[in-house]
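On to my pick:
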Amino acid sequence: MDFLDCYIACRTADPAQLWDWIMDEDQELRYAAGRQLQHEQFAAIVSAIEERLSLEFDPRSWEMMAFIIGQPQSQLTSDDIICICDILTRLLDSGNQAVTASVICALGHLYSNDLLGEQDFCRFEQVIRVACDRDDLDIRISLLFAIAFFPHRNFLADYVLQQIQRSRQDPFASQMVPWVLFALEYGPYPSNEADSFLIDIAGTAASDVAAEALAILLQREVDAAVALAEEYCVQRESSLAEDTELEIHDEVLRSLADSRDERLHEIYQRLNAVIEAID
């Protein structure tokens, strides 16, 4: 089933069927069911998870339970938050890497919504430290997502730098670079090495990833961003003349519009002129 078919099926399914589907071999169906279950009443979610935690370990359903409990769509109380942390801790007891990655993502979502604080992080800090030493791709991606929202820690800053270095030679670089950029854009971890990495990515051939790196450099007001923005603009102006129409990315336009640098404001106006010419 494709995602749309899964989504439609889950919209009309009852909760019992949805809980069965989170164990399905079809990943699209599992996540569509999980997204639908996030909208159930919190007490019903907890009750269903408690029941499944008492059964034999199933990696698919445990991974999905972290996905569901980490992004509940109902209003939460302080007791609900404690309950979520207790469940995530029990899920971590499995020691399964896919479940650990899902729990880390869940924690990232909870922090992104300001539902967890410093004391909560202390509860999970050792698990996160251990995860930073693992070479599993899913865990690496989960960490880079969650680090953007976790409280500042020096070991997390070191981890981001480590992933920057690995992304230059990593066979999984095409999958990792967007997540490294995400951590750099939203996380509190500026550094010269990070800026150098962003400059390298922004200077590559025209791509969405290069545009994202440029937008981050503009937000950070890195000196090299001016020349890179000029090159970005010239490429778009040239593509208009050649009738190839390179994409002008919204994130670059927003970063240029927010800048106080007159040179960047001029580039912003030139890009808008290209957009008007295309329209």
In short: DSSP finds 16 helices and no strands in the chain. The chain has a mean pLDDT of 93.
